[in-house]
Structures are given as structure tokens and as C-alpha cells.
Amino acid sequence: MTHLVFLGGKGGVGKTTLSCAISYQLAARGRRTLLVSTDPAHSVGDVLDMEIGPAPRRVVDNLYAMELDLEKIALEKGSRVKNIAVKILPPDVYEAFSKYVDAVVKGPGVDEYTLIEKILDFAKSEFNYVVFDTAPIGHTFKLLQLPDLLKSWLDMLRRQRLSYVKLSKNVAKLKGEDYRGDPLLEFLEETAKKIDAVTQVLKNPSRTSFFLVANPEKVVLDETLRFIERLTEIGIPLKGVIMNKYRHPTNPKVRRLVEKISTLIIAYVHEDEDEIYGVEKISKIGAVLMPVINKLTTLS
């Protein structure tokens, strides 16, 4: 069974470097691991110092990496849906359906929705672990919040569409025609099932681990504390905080903020004067991340 690992945090805290390091350590322990960049400003390839694209590429034994182009995936899915619909829908119904699909794939939140569908695919994959290098914290919260929001929205759309379907069935019956079904209702119902499945995976601590990455800086720590509260509100279990680029804080405000989350901090990664990139340097961050790796490997 695939375990999903998310690293979230404010932009610039070092999520990508730590995602690469954790993925490497899991692979080094014989776990088949996929590292997935979901941040539009992809940096996984830069940190690994190799070309990474939309298909999984082998990095070392047991470790593969890929960068998702969510906009492209959404447009391709929209085209596939319309290609099926045009063959079975009357022209007037297809026209309305086509406009609906175009609005969805180009609308706000499409990247997050597309990623939700991909998360479900990854949860059923052949990998032991899928590690997500996420977009900055605001985008990540939108992603985690989206399943609950979508469920309410889909329930409303399904109720409206069911009224239309009931009317269409009655009209077809009066005309002595066979009712041909409603692809839009089928699409909405299938989407609702996927959303329910993703929600179950994300909120199950035996299937998903969420870690926050922070730095000893006031702005970062303030946002980290807010995000911890939000995760609790939406029922996403937090496995711990990784304090990256750590140096002993001299600012009393920063010290107090670090103390507030001290019970959640499971690893301290000290600030390094050298830039960390390339598999060889990534492989050397293992010792300080052992608490994270131990938490994850006890799950498999």
C-alpha cells in the first residue's frame, strides 16, 4: 500500500531540498519511492542537478522523480471528456456540456482539483512512498481544504442535475423514445466518488504523513503556527515540524515562537554555508533526518 508524504511550508524554507533528502533516505532503505514536484516553480531538478520532467525518471536505485504540469493535465483531460461526449450526446446537449468542461479546466482551483485526482492515482501506485514537494503554504492549504469544499459544491450540482434528468426521462417517455442517459450527471457522480476516496486517504494517518518545514524566523514561524491550527480544523494529521536552516535564535520573540512548537519539532537541520545540490550532497543530510525516516519506515 502506497504511503503519501507531504512537505509543506512557506516559500523559501527549504521544502524542496528536504523532500529530495527524505526521498533519498527512503530509497536507500529499499523503499521504492517517487518524488513529485507540485510547485509550478519546479526546483526538484535543480536540487538533484538533473533534468526532471512530467514522467518519472530514475535518480538512483529505488528513487524516481517527476514534475507535474497540472495545467496541461487538466486541458488533456477536458479534451478526452469532450471527445467521448460528442459521440453520444445530441448537439444541443453537447454544446452546453462542452462549455461546462471548458469553464472547469480553465477556472480557478483547477490546479488543486487536478492534483487531487493525481493524488488518488499515486495512492494506488506501485511505489511504497510518494513524497510531494508542495507549492508554498497558502496553495497547499487550498489543496487540502478543497475536497470538503468540492463535496458541498458537487452535492448541489448533482441535485440540480437530477431534476433535469427526471424531466428528460419524462419527456423521452412521452415521446416514446429511449432515455440515453446523462454524461454530465455520470461525470459529477464519478467525481464525487473520487473526492470521497481522496478525503479518506488524506485524513488517514496510516496512509498520509504531513510535515511542516520551518526556519527560525518570526514571519515563517507565525505562518507555521497558523497552518498548524488550520490543519487541525480540517482534520489533517500533522506528523511533525522540521526546523531547517537552524541557528540558535537570539531574538526573544523568535525564541518564544520556537518554544511554542518545540513539542512538534522532530528534526533540526542546521544552517549550511555550502549550497546543497546534486545527489551526493543530498545523500549526506541523512543523519539529522533520522527521526522523520523512522516515523515513516515504521508505517511499512
Automatic annotation (TrEMBL):
SUPFAM superfamilies: P-loop containing nucleoside triphosphate hydrolases
Lineage: superkingdom: Archaea
Residue ranges of every copy of the ArsA/GET3 Anion-transporting ATPase-like domain listed in the record: 3-247
An annotated Gene Ontology molecular function: ATP hydrolysis activity
CDD domains per UniProt: ArsA (cd02035)
Pfam families cross-referenced by the UniProt entry: ArsA_ATPase (PF02374)
InterPro entries: ArsA/GET3_ATPase-like (IPR025723), ATPase_ArsA/GET3 (IPR016300), P-loop_NTPase (IPR027417)
UniProt similarity note: Belongs to the arsA ATPase family.
Name of this chain's protein: Arsenic-transporting ATPase
